[in-house]
Amino acid sequence: MFPLIDAIIENKHEHILVHTGQHYDIQMSDVxxxxxxxxxxxxxxxxxxxxxxxQTGEILKRVEDVILKEEPxxxxxxxxxxxxxGGALAATKLHVKLGHLEAGLRSFDKRMPEExxxxxxxxxxxxxxxxxxxxxxxxxxxxxxxxVYSVGDTMFEIAMKMKKQVENIKIDFELPDxxxxxxxxxxxxxxxxxxxxxxxDLFKIKKPIILPIHPRTKSKLIELDLFDKVKEKLxxxxxxxxxxxxxxxxxxxxxxxxxxxxxxxxxWNQTPCITVRDSTxxxxxxxxxxxxxxxxxxxxxxxxxxxxxxxxFDENLYxxxxxxxxxxxxxxxxx
Length: 335
Fold this sequence. Notes:
six-stranded parallel beta sheet; 16 helices; globular
């Protein structure tokens, strides 16, 4: 949202930033505002952790209160989290115009809560801002053809803007000459069935692996009595800010992840990626050969395959460096 906020301010429009508190750890929330020199949110709803129904319901209720108080002309929601869906439902039920940033993404796996959030939000939205042409095709296949716009990806935009800062950032610990960068946090992987298999398969890779550990993953590893073993075998660090995270992602030999955003960031930093999921919403990265799906027990096998491949990354896959300006112009013309 940050580059979009800059474009909104530049065009002299009022905006109110609402942080639901779905992410609340200092290293997974406050650090981004500090590093990117942005003001803190106008509202923090302090939702915290909880099951999907609780989180979505509480977000809907509390966002509704903000909308009733502030009376916005437009509500913008990014991505595919419970915050996205809660905000979308609140706006729609109050008949406030809704814009969806990252519209049209589909993994075609409805077991993923994010897939449900994406579909419902798109079908509620009045303005659909798509990062890729595949996203537009997905919406067309669902009968959504009006007010659909190809604008590129704001995460790509901010990555391009922050290149120099990333290059100059210092890492707080010593890096191996060659390493794998790992992030695992999705609910489908942090359970007692899949997480032990993922851990055992990662242990087969004979390269240093750096893991900035998500609170959910750490909690589950401790519960499964695996955390000490993981600390012995991998380089486990606390969650990282945007700049350090991006630097490690850029310098890694390979990224292993289950995050949607990290798949994209790996691609435009030209780092091969192994995605530990059955499907992905970023199909372009798979088709262009920079991203590879893996089952929990085939991660090391995928790693061996990728190290022998020459990958040709498409620099134009995610579009423009002025995505936010394009979005603001569309909003202005639609009001």
